[in-house]
């Protein structure tokens, strides 16, 4: 799928603004594409993504980029917590850094899921509010319109 909406540098700017440094080179186009396919396309639809990537609806780009960035980080974070090299799978440790405790990693992932979900809900609100001017958007195709979990409750619409 053609991206044209968010670059690796924009993913860093939008989703890694919590004080640490992540190089844009750590994020590949395949990482973004996988997150978009898994999380954003089921909400916005492939046709909306393609239309915005092609330059239509420039105001929608902000919402799609934010959702794509948050979902990319959600997908990538576990891989950023470890290193793969000739020695196999390792964790950062040493004089200047020590691997975070498992409880901290679990809490971070929970927080990232909340952020990704909120960005997808914000995207849905935008698309619903502008559905008349974005004919490619079909609210019936939005997965968040069919089933959602809130506070441990499953809601089927």
What does this structure look like?
With 157 residues, this protein is mainly alpha-helical. The protein has 5 helices and 4 strands, in the order ααααββαββ. A two-stranded antiparallel sheet has the order 1-2. The protein has a two-stranded antiparallel sheet with strand order 3-4. Strand 3 (147-150) and strand 4 form a beta hairpin. Helix 1 packs across helix 4 and helix 4 (58-80) packs antiparallel against helix 5 (102-129). The two termini are 29 Å apart.
Give a short summary of the structure.
The chain has five helices and four strands. The chain is mainly α.
Q: Give me the Rg, rounded.
A: 17 Å
In total, how many domains does the architecture comprise? 1
Instruction: Give a short account of the largest sheet.
Output: 2 strands, antiparallel
- The gross shape turns out to be globular
Strand content range? 5-15%
How is the topology of this model organized?
Blueprint: H1 8-15, H2 29-44, H3 46-53, H4 58-80, E1 83-85, E2 88-90, H5 102-129, E3 147-150, E4 153-156
Antiparallel strand pairs: 1-2, 3-4
Helix pairs in contact: 1-4, 2-4, 2-5, 4-5
Q: Which terms would index this structure?
A:
about 160 residues, mainly alpha, two-stranded antiparallel sheet, 4 strands, about 10% strand, globular
